[in-house]
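Request: Show me your protein:
***
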Amino acid sequence: MLDRIYIAATSQHVGKTTCTLGLMAAIRERGHKVSYCKPVGQEWVELGGLQVDKDALLFARGMDFELKAELHSPVIIGSGVTARYLDDPAEYGFNRAITKASRRLQTNNEVVIYEGTGHPGVGSVCDVSNAQVAQLLDAPVVMVVEGGIGSTIDKLNLNLAMFRERRVPVRGVIVNKTRPAKLEKVRHYVGKYLQKTGIPLLGVLPFEQVLSNPIMASIRESLKGHTLLNKDGLDNQVEHIASGSLLAQEEVENLRNLLVIVSHRRLDEALSALQSILQDRGLPGSTISGVVVTGLLDEEPHLPHTDFLNAHNIPVVACPLDTYGAAVRISQMEVKINLKTPWKIRRAVELIEEHVDMDLLL
């Protein structure tokens, strides 16, 4: 059976981490001892005085294993490293660190899943591109690409070239974030193209809105805002957004997991309208995910209706942007799975089980 897999993607934000989570859980579910490694990381956190990639931390907590930086996150390319590497490559032992981690993980596990970083060329400046690392690890690649037909095939052809150049075998392709109405069409035509290359199509996953929904904490970070009330509610999931002016006109249809964006000048009016709408429709205040108050620089506004907000633990976040600017910023957010979104981890696992041919992969 396959004892190692390298998960690569055609670009950022196509669902590489989501697929890796699901694959790891599916392999474990089949009774195999499986571990995880992010050979090269760029976004890191401090853990016990060491730098550890954020995804490695996510997997350790989500998949319940003890995180060891030297094993699960052996190389971190932080700010300034690339320039220093070009000045003196001998100062860095990236390949040695990756190889050492791999040997220990492969010895103690039946399967090791290695997660790549960004597109296949990321890391090239330090001689640790995804293709170079997969070759070093002698690990066949599973390529994740976003759903479609023409653009999907074009991206696959471009990105697989780096692995072909280094003679890294490609075990299969997973097409992610496909519009549900086009699942069969994408499966047929992408599969037809891949047949010519001898690469299996392992599965086509539908786009699921729940995996793209942010939480209030992520929205606060994106807006560079600060919390005015109910910090405990920042894990609330946001599914729909409405401006205060729409609330005042009672033109909001779906209130489930609703984020209200409103100017500080219209806050009282908007919250009054919101409570009226909830009462008329017989809905609890807990259906509201949060409130973003816009147009605030340094001043702390007087918050009206705090009894209502506190009763339902509705977080209130302030930001300096105007209402339109805040709405645009939120719409442009790239939302990743993290430790505060356990429902996304569960759904990622279900999607892989439902849509990927694990027997073909293994």
About this structure: The CA atoms of residues 84 and 90 lie 10 Å apart.
